[in-house]
Design goal:
By secondary structure, the chain is mostly beta strands. It is built from no helices and 11 strands.
């Protein structure tokens, strides 16, 4: 069982930046970030696989960057130029099996989930 602990959420003004972190208790081969806003379905915002290939939906492409420190088993999400519509609970997800670039964007790929961290973008 791999435990995931997110941190770094908070309140930020539009145009601002935040960096989320996700510390994993064990080794994983596929990791990603998802978010869920009130009344909306959970959506993928970034994923990264074993070879470092990443994928993003158009809604965050160019603003969000996913990275992983393998030595620390920690996943990051750098979020820049934040918009009010980015407001949501952000979840870290991980899987012990490899994932494709497309598969990394699907919630069904993952079997480990963090508790979530709130990100609020508001003036």
């Amino acid at each position: 069982e791999v435990q995931l602990v997110e941190s770094g959420g908070g309140l930020v003004q539009p145009g601002g930046s935040l960096r989320l972190s996700c510390a994993a208790s064990g080794y994983t081969k596929c990791m990603g970030w998802f978010r869920q806003a009130p009344g909306k379905e959970r959506e993928g915002v970034a994923s990264i696989n074993m070879v470092g290939s990443s994928t993003y939906p158009d809604s965050v492409k160019g603003r969000f960057t996913i990275s992983k420190d393998n030595a620390k088993n920690t996943l990051y999400l750098q979020m820049n130029s934040l918009k009010p519509e980015d407001t949501a609970v952000y979840y870290c997800a991980a899987a012990p099996w490899p994932c494709t670039v497309v598969g990394g964007g699907r919630a069904s790929t993952y079997n480990y989930w963090g508790q979530g961290t709130q990100v609020t973008v508001s003036s």
